[in-house]
Design brief:
about 400 residues, mainly alpha, Growth Hormone, Chain: A, 14 helices
């Protein structure tokens, strides 16, 4: 582990890397959605192009996470950021749907490299006594990217053209790569014991990995529903078109403000994963039920604030728990697999709500989501009892 003075000067570029992936994911999605007709994308085509980012992450994050354990986090982060630059430049060829789809896929693949490697590097640079604080800051910068990405992206696209967004993303990723290259120390590769298939199965099914990953997946499922369905609910309530978007922005701002504070509380021993994550998920479940029973502009924003507090609580606690319970030689693999769980939640939550709403009603779908959230919170409360061994997670 590095010294505290060294940590303060070397973790910051990783925050920019986290901001980059969030900015790229949501900024491009917002622009493509707003200009889909102008660039010749049908609704089905738009959905397919947007999904390419997540598809790449689902398949590649565990692979790149494990690679960072083998060759070191720094080259994977720098290589991923440079790959993000190259993918962004693809869009400069032409704003045609096929070209933009290739750029989206390339950006997702590149983010699959530097995202889990950055999480693993944050864990190793932070030291076990400050995991909550540094993961809180890392998560806050990601949330800031989710807030500013659509705002900056749409502004650039409408004032300078859609390709200006890709220039900005490429420039940001290049700057982050240079900063990581110059400021981040080269973390030594920790010798790894030879694992059998049975060892790998055991490591990925133990409580200290599965439960925090379940909590992360559930929180991301609720977040995915909020981003997609709060604007829809606002439209169904005949509210101003900006109301739903403002609710999503409020969610992200609350998450940004909450994560560092929760991280500090975790490190000082005043809150743990078991209590904090359970309370966060229960708060989100109650807000979802209230929104289902009494949909209005007020309950829309109440739910958004509750979701932001939930994400801001669960994310730093669960990631810090995973990092504290993971040997350094497989930190990248753990973070890659945990982020895979988050991606599945991000895709599964909206699919679940959409399916139930189609077959039944929107309030029923929200109640189902609330029930799933309560169930995950109950699992966390029951399984993360005191006495778990920090070394048992993969």
């Amino acid at each position: 582990m590095t010294s505290p003075a060294l940590r303060r000067g070397t973790v910051a570029p990783l925050y920019v890397a986290g901001f980059t992936t969030a900015f790229g994911a949501h900024g491009v999605a917002s622009v493509l959605g707003s200009e889909s007709e102008d660039i010749g994308l049908s609704l089905l085509g738009l959905g397919a192009v947007l999904a390419l980012y997540d598809v790449a992450e689902v398949f590649l994050k565990p692979i790149f996470g494990a690679l960072s354990d083998r060759i070191g986090a720094k080259p994977v982060i720098v290589g991923g950021l440079l790959g993000f630059v190259a993918a962004s430049l693809i869009a400069l060829v032409s704003p045609a749907p096929l070209v933009l789809a290739l750029a989206r896929l390339g950006q997702g693949a590149a983010a699959s490299a530097f995202s889990p490697a950055s999480s693993a590097a944050v864990a190793r640079l932070a030291g076990r006594e400050r995991l909550g604080r540094y993961f809180g800051r890392y998560g806050a910068w990601k949330s800031l990217g989710y807030v500013l990405g659509p705002l900056i992206g749409v502004t650039l696209a409408y004032t300078l053209g859609i390709q200006a967004l890709y220039v900005a993303l490429g420039t940001l990723a290049a700057a982050a790569a240079i900063w990581v290259l110059l400021a981040m120390p080269t973390l030594p590769v920790v010798p790894r014991p030879r694992y059998t298939l049975l060892d790998l199965v055991r490591q990925t099914t133990e409580r200290d990995f599965l439960v925090p990953t379940l909590l992360l997946a559930t929180s991301t499922a609720v977040l995915g529903v909020a981003v997609g369905f709060l604007p829809l609910l606002g439209a169904r309530l005949d509210l101003h078109p900006l109301t739903g978007a403002s609710a999503v922005a409020a969610l992200a701002l609350v998450s940004t403000a909450t994560q560092p504070a929760i991280g500090r509380l975790r490190d000082s021993g005043r809150i743990g994963t078991r209590l904090g994550a359970t309370l966060g998920l229960m708060l989100a479940a109650v807000a979802t039920a209230v929104l289902a029973l009494a949909p209005s502009a007020v309950t829309l924003f109440i739910a958004a604030v509750a979701y932001g507090a939930m994400v801001g609580t669960v994310t730093p606690l669960a990631f810090a728990h995973l990092a504290a319970a993971t040997p350094e030689e497989r930190m990248g693999r753990t973070m890659g697999n945990a982020e895979l769980g988050r991606e599945l939640g991000d895709a599964g939550g909206p699919l679940l709500v959409g399916a139930v709403a189609t077959a039944w009603t929107m309030p029923a779908a929200l109640f189902v989501l609330a029930g799933v959230t309560v169930g995950a919170g109950a699992v966390g409360w029951t399984a993360l009892r005191s006495g778990t061994k920090d070394s048992s997670a993969p």
